Amino acid sequence: MLSNQELEAICALLTPKTLTAGATIFTEGALGDGLYLVASGEVEVFHSSRNGPLATLGAGECFGEMALVDKDYRSATVKARSDVELLHLSPESLAVFRKDNKDGFGFLVMNIARLLSVRLREANRH
Asked: Which segments of 20-95 are extended strands (E)?
């Protein structure tokens, strides 16, 4: 668990973004720019190989986490299903957090790894 100090430090590094329903947050094949946390509203995740959304994510959920790990191209397109407020964490901001918050950084990285594992298992089931 993050301490109050670590939580304040990571929150200070988040960039808020507000989008209207239907807006594209990022597209499959675009270069990844970081993780997005849904503060309010809903987003839908799409992949070119499937008809319809792969997933709908709401407040408290995140997407784009792979960009914090490998800074590669996006594996899906994400669009705002409703008006949405997002918090963006760039790889550069995560590196700033790592400098002064080694324990908190370890905690975040382990949770990103857990999330990736859950999503991979879910994808394998389908």
From this structure: 24-26, 35-40, 43-46, 55-57, 62-63, 77-80, 84-89
